[in-house]
Backbone:
């Protein structure tokens, strides 16, 4: 144990490996348990193709915003304004597209830019003025909710151009017609995704092994990849049995991949974690902490705007109530997904799983006919429970 | 001066017998005996780390009975203090160097923070006001009781602390470096106050580095060194020589604690001229005063000084202005002027600064060794912004081997390493940036002797590789043991320089004390 250079050790045993990585897999296991539970409780309604597509559509904007929120939380901050910003951008886009008749693509670009600007303003106060993000974004929450009502009056704007609606309610164009009712292009897309994931995993493992880096046990690795193949394949199959792959799922998948890469593999991602882990130490290591915090807020603004557009496209109207309470779901997704409220800790995959965990629970409880009252109670308790388990695990 | 009954004839008010206290493997106090007579001013002196503060913490109950060996007698009875409240009840009041006042509360609120005059839980403000006025009069303050602490100067704050102690029926007043942050007039006033207390029968223990002040007011002086009592001197028995005190404070053997080195010193590579910096909050307080410094290739230069001399502030302001404001001055490396306007540029320019506080400022404790090592030089393990995890791991493994960091592997959390190993991770981080000038601030604080030796060896290797090395340390033997030249810093300026062979602790102490005497 004390001799150096024995990092090139024999692979650890499966059990001890599982124990060490309980935290990462615990989340996934919880999700599976909840899915199985509701699948049984709802007599199989949960995993009906129509419903699976619904769960994806219902949670797409939460996932998208959770990607931004995770980075904000990792730097040790919080953004309470995302729901208002999403709603505001929805109304703003409605105004431009429906009332002014601007082209949808132009409006999307402008909307994302405005979202970025909103993030920049809030980020400026947080990063450079050192005002607690809780306060800045609480103010933002009020300001943008108010501005949205000011834009919309008290009525909804709609309907949106058909092509804009496709952002949320469109599906991947089917190239191959099939008599069986299965959307083959969508299914193949899903399979391709699974294969890409697995090929990448193998390549990365091979590289690590060839350099003598400790990795997970081989049996475990194979099992994990088979599960990925089976899981992704099964979901792709379900979705392809309904109407095919929703466009928004593609957007989501691309964003999840991009942000996973950003947070785990890039210099800027590493620096964001360093800022959250110990801001003073990061600063004294030459990291421009204020600028990074500022940028995470800009990024959050853009993603909140994207979330707002997705919601508007899905509802096919911009209403003054849109986006209300989103911030809570988004923040809950991050914390359920293992992010630390003290900063420095949190994973993109965790936040995504957290978002779906909440989504599956919402959906399952609605199918079971549980009222909105007790749904909230249960969700609240799940949030508290998840964080408690996490804290307990860390103290072990 | 009044000459009361000879001191030795009365039983001591306080007697600490054979006190020993360890922190893990480190012995902070061993077999210390210490007695204070009623009504005297007893000075406690020793180097930083000699055990003065630890002894006072044992006395006041910060370290409760049972966590140390030995016994404490106060007022003729053996006492077992469980916490600071126990000792305060008996009138043992300690005033720490860092004042414990709440800035945005008034003087009266601070003095009666824990036990305000009240009936049924409701504070009697006029009574508090009256009592505060009486206490302030005793310490010679004319401030109104409702003045906020933040609006009075440090000297007066110190007096408020003393007034607070008086509000608790003090029998033994302990002052830890009471004049460290005071100017000449305030210090003199404080010393006068202590003398007046003595006339009123209050016993005081005064911890201080300022020997001229000690010889002025103390009745007896106890010297601690390396956690042991060296002896107690009676100031009434004859004149006390300051040099004698210094000699007793620092005398010890320095052999074999420091690795041998044959310095190969080249030309001057690093030059700092007229470096100044002001306090970030009090913009009129100049903390670093026109400091100039030259370091040669392969040279280890030490910066010595008391706490608060401005050493860390100098280093941090130099390192990308990470401390202070209105930082001015020039720094040159190989004759070329450097842009040190932020930390990133300072690192690029070839500077590295190993911080004094590795947990707060040096490491990201929840991250592993690998991520900490690469943190200051991520560009060295990445291309186009993407980190090469294999390259990063290899860098970390190389340093783990070279620095002999004891861990299972490079994926171990740094928060779970020992102090010495943590320090080696911090050193690795900075060596990986490939610095030309390396500034180490208290590089061996809180590290055991073995790890210290290893750190010294690493420092020597760096110097031998032709780097300019600057070591800041409060431990004089350490500086003497490893440095080629030592700059003595006092109150923000360099007040002396002792080099190589001629460096003794007495020389350094004298340079500081001389300065103090002149103030």
Residues:
């Amino acid at each position: 144990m004390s001799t150096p250079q024995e990092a090139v050790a024999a692979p650890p045993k499966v059990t001890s490996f599982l124990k060490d990585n309980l935290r990462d897999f615990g989340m996934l296991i919880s999700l599976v348990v909840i899915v199985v539970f509701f699948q049984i409780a709802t007599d199989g309604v949960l995993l009906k193709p129509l419903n699976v597509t619904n769960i994806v559509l219902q949670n797409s904007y939460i996932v998208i915003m959770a990607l931004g929120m995770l980075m904000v939380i990792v730097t040790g901050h919080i953004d309470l304004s995302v729901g208002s910003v999403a709603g505001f951008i929805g109304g703003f886009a409605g105004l431009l597209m429906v009332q002014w008749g601007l082209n949808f693509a132009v409006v999307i670009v402008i909307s994302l830019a405005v979202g970025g600007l909103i993030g920049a303003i809030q980020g400026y106060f947080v990063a450079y003025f050192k005002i607690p993000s809780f306060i800045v974004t609480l103010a933002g929450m009020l300001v943008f909710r108010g501005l949205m009502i000011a834009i919309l009056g008290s009525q909804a704007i709609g309907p949106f151009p058909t092509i804009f609606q496709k952002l949320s309610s469109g599906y991947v164009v089917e190239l191959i017609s099939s008599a069986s009712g299965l959307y083959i292009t969508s299914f193949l897309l899903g399979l391709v995704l699974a294969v890409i994931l697995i090929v990448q995993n193998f390549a990365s493992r091979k590289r690590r092994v060839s350099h003598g880096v400790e990795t997970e046990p081989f049996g475990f690795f194979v099992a994990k990849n088979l599960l990925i193949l089976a899981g992704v394949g099964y979901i792709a199959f379900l979705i392809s049995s309904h109407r095919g792959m929703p466009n928004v799922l593609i957007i989501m998948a691309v964003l999840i991949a991009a942000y996973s890469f950003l947070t785990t593999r890039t210099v800027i991602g590493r620096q964001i974690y360093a800022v959250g882990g110990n801001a003073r130490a990061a600063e004294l290591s030459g990291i421009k902490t204020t600028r990074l915090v500022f940028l995470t807020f800009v990024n959050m603004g853009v993603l909140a705007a994207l979330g707002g557009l997705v919601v508007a496209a899905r509802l096919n109207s911009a209403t003054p109530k849109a986006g209300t309470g989103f911030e809570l779901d988004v923040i809950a997704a991050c914390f359920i997904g293992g992010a630390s409220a003290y900063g420095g800790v949190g994973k993109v995959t965790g936040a995504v799983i957290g978002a779906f965990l909440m989504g599956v629970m919402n959906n399952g409880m609605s199918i079971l006919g549980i009222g909105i009252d007790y749904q909230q109670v249960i969700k609240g308790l799940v949030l508290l429970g998840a964080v408690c388990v996490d804290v307990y695990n860390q103290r072990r | 001066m009044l000459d009361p009954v000879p001191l030795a004839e009365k039983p001591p008010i306080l007697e600490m017998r054979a006190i020993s206290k360890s922190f893990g493997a480190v012995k902070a106090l061993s077999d210390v005996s210490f007695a204070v007579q009623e009504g005297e001013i007893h000075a406690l002196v020793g180097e930083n780390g000699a055990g003065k503060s630890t002894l006072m913490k044992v006395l006041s109950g910060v370290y409760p009975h049972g966590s140390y060996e030995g016994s404490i007698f106060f007022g003729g009875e053996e006492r077992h203090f469980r916490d600071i409240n126990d000792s305060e009840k008996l009138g043992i009041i300690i005033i720490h160097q860092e004042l414990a006042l709440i800035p945005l509360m008034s003087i009266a609120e601070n003095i009666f923070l824990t036990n305000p005059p009240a009936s049924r839980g409701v504070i009697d403000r006029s009574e508090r006001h009256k009592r505060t006025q009486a206490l302030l009069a005793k310490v010679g303050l004319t401030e109104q009781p409702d003045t906020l602490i933040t609006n009075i100067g440090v000297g007066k704050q110190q007096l408020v602390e003393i007034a607070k102690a008086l509000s608790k029926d003090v029998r033994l007043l302990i002052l830890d470096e009471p004049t460290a942050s005071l100017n000449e007039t305030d210090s003199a006033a404080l010393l006068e106050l202590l003398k007046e207390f003595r006339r009123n029968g209050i016993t005081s223990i005064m911890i201080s580095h300022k020997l001229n002040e000690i010889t002025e007011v103390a009745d007896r002086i106890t010297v601690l060194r390396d956690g042991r009592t060296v002896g107690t001197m009676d100031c009434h028995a004859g004149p006390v020589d300051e040099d004698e005190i210094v000699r007793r404070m620092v005398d010890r053997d320095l052999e074999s604690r420091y690795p041998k080195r044959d310095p190969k010193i080249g030309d001057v590579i690093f030059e700092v001229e007229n470096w100044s910096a002001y306090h970030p909050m009090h913009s009129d307080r100049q903390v670093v005063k026109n400091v100039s410094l030259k370091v040669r290739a392969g040279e280890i230069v030490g910066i010595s000084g008391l706490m608060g001399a401005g050493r860390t502030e100098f280093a941090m302001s130099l390192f990308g202005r990470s401390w202070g404001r209105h930082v001015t001055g020039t720094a040159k490396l190989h004759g070329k002027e450097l842009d040190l306007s932020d930390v990133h540029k300072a690192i690029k320019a070839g500077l590295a600064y190993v911080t004094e506080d590795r947990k707060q400022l040096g490491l990201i404790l929840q991250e592993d060794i690998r991520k900490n090592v690469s943190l200051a030089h991520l560009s060295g393990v990445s291309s186009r912004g993407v980190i090469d995890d294999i390259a990063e791991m290899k860098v970390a493994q190389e340093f783990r081997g070279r620095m002999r960091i004891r861990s299972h592997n490079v994926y171990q959390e740094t928060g779970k390493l020992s102090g010495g190993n943590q320090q080696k991770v911090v050193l690795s981080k900075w060596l990986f940036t490939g610095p030309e000038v390396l500034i180490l601030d208290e590089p061996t604080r809180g590290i055991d002797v073995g790890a210290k030796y290893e750190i010294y060896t690493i420092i020597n290797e760096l110097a031998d590789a032709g780097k300019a090395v600057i070591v800041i340390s409060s431990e004089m033997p350490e500086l003497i043991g490893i440095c080629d030249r030592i700059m003595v810093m006092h109150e923000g300026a360099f007040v002396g320089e002792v080099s190589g062979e001629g460096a003794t602790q007495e020389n350094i102490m004298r340079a500081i004390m001389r300065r103090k005497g002149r103030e």
Residues 1-11 of chain A have pLDDT under 50 and may be disordered. The two ends of chain A are 22 Å apart (CA to CA). Chain A touches chain B through 33 residues (CB under 8 Å).
